[in-house]
Amino acid sequence: MTGHLAIVCGSCPAGQAGLRATLAAEFSARALAIEVRQTDCMSGCARPSALAFRAPGKVAYLFGDITLADLPDLVRFAALYLSSVDGAFADARPLGGLRTKAIARIPG
Description:
Blueprint: E1 5-9, H1 13-16, H2 19-29, E2 35-39, E3 51-54, E4 60-63, H3 71-83, E5 102-106
Parallel strand pairs: 1-2
Antiparallel strand pairs: 1-3, 3-4, 4-5
């Protein structure tokens, strides 16, 4: 494993609907080396469903309002995040709808 993580809130609707397993299967099918974990609660209740991406030395991202319909954008983000040296993106347009769902960008 590369240390890249996607963390799904298990208390949120998407987490309860199986987002962790769906993401893990999609990432695996595309050979994206991102481990998908689920945690009990991410305190993103104002914008459920919450999902975070993080890796050592990279910017971490917290997204809200995630649904299973965001799967194509999440896969695209994951690929871009893996290929980024520091996790930062000069242009947010390739992130699709996720650019409006970002709650926080946390420096690495």
